[in-house]
Structure prediction request, 123 residues.
Amino acid sequence: MAVKPYDSENIFAKILRGDIPCNKIFEDDHVLAFHDIAPQAPTHILVIPKGAYTSYDDFAMNASDAEILAFTRAIGKIAAAAGVVQGGYRLISNTREHGRQDVPHLHVHIIGGKKLGLMLPRD
Ligand code: 5GP
Prediction:
């Protein structure tokens, strides 16, 4: 199955262009982070690269060292600033069909603020 190319009409591309608003909590040259519109826990933050990457594998293979460094460091800073480091949290990056990815622009969910359920439902 061919991997779809980046779709510049996805909702996070629109947020990056400023076409639609977001509740921003962090921004630097390479990264934007904002609160999820439908939080699934007391802390539910989305961290996205500014570059046009569909998924973590796309980003890992094609982003520059500077972008990868900035993204990785931003996740650490944002988790600390959100106050979830001590209690713990979950990083999730849903990918394509099997991963149930809804928005085809790489994003990492930082979810925490309470004890979470099982990582995956048991079938
Ligand atoms: P995915 O299922 O692709 O891993 O996650 C997409 C996430 O984006 C969902 O948690 C959803 O609530 C969030 N989301 C979708 N549209 C918007 C939006 O317009 N603004 C914000 N802040 N979050 C959104």
Summary: The chain has a mean pLDDT of 96.
